[in-house]
């Protein structure tokens, strides 16, 4: 099978790429990213794009499964508008092309608290993307809603660093649903679920991801 991966240069996307390269059921991985990856592999095809115009790539973006790990923060994006472009418009654009190309399974790393009616802009955008993907009616839509992600990021996120300290010190007081989770565990669950022949929309919350 062929897998299309969005966000391979990010934390979860990097782990997802490793899982896919090690999975025998995938013989080709197309990594669609804004930055070149510092690696080569016989199964890996890298496509560098800014996502603003994917028209010329439509015939290339053919895969049985799409894994979307694309995401940023409002601070890193620079504005709410740019954040929504990266976290909503780009994934949806790829999803629309994938659906037209016959993709069976679309797997998304969303976030805990994603809700179209959320008072928080970040959570609202995540919820809007989930709903937009549901509207595309993929045969199989897998949505993971992790809590705080653990792992070695290339850039520092102060809020996450504080969260990690709290999680380490007071972890025993935090309910499983809200505990931090390692990005590699999310990636493993994402790939594993994609190979289970699931139908319809499957949503896994933070504590459920740990049980996959």
From TrEMBL:
Residues 7-161 form the NAD(P)-binding domain. Pfam families: NAD_binding_10 (PF13460). PANTHER family: OXIDOREDUCTASE HTATIP2. This is NAD(P)H-binding. It comes from the Bacteria. Signal peptide: none annotated.
């Amino acid at each position: 099978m062929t897998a299309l991966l969005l966000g391979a240069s990010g934390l979860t996307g990097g782990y997802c790429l490793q899982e896919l390269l090690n999975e025998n059921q995938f013989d080709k991985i197309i990594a669609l990213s804004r930055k070149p990856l510092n690696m080569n592999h016989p199964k890996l095809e890298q496509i560098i794009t800014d996502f603003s115009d994917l028209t010329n790539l439509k015939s290339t973006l053919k895969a049985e499964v799409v894994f979307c790990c694309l995401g940023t923060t409002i601070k890193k994006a620079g504005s709410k508008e740019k954040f929504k472009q990266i976290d909503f418009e780009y994934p949806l654009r790829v999803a629309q092309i994938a659906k037209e190309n016959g993709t069976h399974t679309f797997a998304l790393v969303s976030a805990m608290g994603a809700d179209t009616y959320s008072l928080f802009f970040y959570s609202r955008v995540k919820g809007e993307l989930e709903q937009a993907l549901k509207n595309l009616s993929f045969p199989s839509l897998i949505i993971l809603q992790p809590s705080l992600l653990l792992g070695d990021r290339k850039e520092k996120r102060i809020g996450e660093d504080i969260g990690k300290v709290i999680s380490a010190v007071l972890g025993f007081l935090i309910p499983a649903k809200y505990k931090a989770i390692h990005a590699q565990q999310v990636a493993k669950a994402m790939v594993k679920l994609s190979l289970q022949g699931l139908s319809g929309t499957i949503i896994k919350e933070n504590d459920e991801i740990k049980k996959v």
